[in-house]
Amino acid sequence: MPLLMVDPARDPLPPEADVPVPRGGAVTVEVRQGQLLSIETVVPGQVAELFAWTIADAGEWLSPHHTRVFGGTFELRMGTRLVTNRRRPILVVGRDSLRHHDLLLPASEASVAAVAAAVAQAGFVVPRIPDPINLFLETQLHPDGRIEVRPSPARAGDRWTTRVLLDAVVAVAAPSPSLANDADHSVVTVRVRNEVTALPVDLPVWIDEGAARTAASATAGISPPIESAIVPRKRHDRR
After folding, report:
1. Which of 33, 101, 128, 171 is most exposed by smallest CB count within 10 Å?
2. Of 69, 77, 41, 57, residue with least CA distance to 162
3. In the beta sheet, which residues pair with residue 190?
4. Burial code of 8-34, b = ≥16 C-beta within 10 A, e = fewer?
5. Which pLDDT score is estimated for 83?
6. Which pLDDT value is given to residue 220?
7. pLDDT given at position 239
């Protein structure tokens, strides 16, 4: 349902596109109301940082902070409307195979520089590089106030898809781990589609088996096994 438009696009939609993002780099694409924007991982464990500005006014941009307040949560869920700094919905989440993302952390200095360069190369003038939506990044808030950043559970082929609600310039950065040596390789793909049927088939929704066992044990009133705290979580890559 979130991928269905309440108000159809006013004009014919522009051509579809697939844009690769190299590790440590950033790209920009223009999207129009009614199009589908998908961000897809090419390699396991990769994070993507999403930025956007409205074409009508670069002073209006996608804001994770306003999105948190607008939705009353710091989690991205199916049907979540991502809003701008003027509280207008710009994207709505329609498909998500991983369902682990972050609305709290800022971009790294390297990502900010990469996005600034990509936006300038596209000839789009923006007043600032705002904080991003951190896709495929797993964070956890602890009762003592700590924010724990965990390794991304993303599989190759995990995809997050939204319907575009406002014409926008979108930038996507692919942060590079300090030891990465494949900066010339594509690690994220940005897909722009005009029809849902033009999208590849999504992976099955990722399940954290350790968390599922802990939840089941809590529901049953028994303590989880001690080894569950030290055994690495399993990642399913069903392709």
Report:
1. 128
2. 77
3. 19, 39
4. eeeeebeeeeeeebbbbbbbbbebbbb
5. 97
6. 52
7. 42
Q: Are 182 and 44 a contacting pair, CB within 8 Å?
A: no
Tens digits of residue pLDDT in 128-161:
999 999 999 988 888 998 888 888 889 999 999 9
Residue 178 to residue 172: CA distance in whole angstroms: 19
Mean per-residue pLDDT, 192-206: 85
Q: Which residues on adjacent β-strands are paired with residue 54?
A: 168
From the list 46, 84, 78, 79, the residue with the least C-alpha distance to 64 is 84
Side-chain-side CA neighbours of residue 32 (13 Å): 13
The strand pair at 147-150 and 48-54 is best described as: unpaired
The structural domains of the chain, with segments of one domain joined by +, span 17-200, 207-239
For residue 6, the one-letter residue type is V
Task: Say if CB 60 and CB 85 are below 8 A apart.
Answer: yes
Residue with tokens 């999207």: 31
- Element (H or E) spanning 113, and its range? helix 109-121
Q: 112, 129 in Cβ contact below 8 A?
A: yes
Decide if 3 contacts 79 (C-beta within 8 A).
no
Give the CA radius of gyration of the chain.
18
Helix (H) or strand (E) holding 92: strand 89-96
Q: Which residues of 45-79 are buried (b: 16+ CB within 10 A; e: fewer)?
A: ebbbbbbbbbbeeeebbbbbebbbebbeebebeee
139: its two tokens = 């964070």
Residue 198's pLDDT is 85
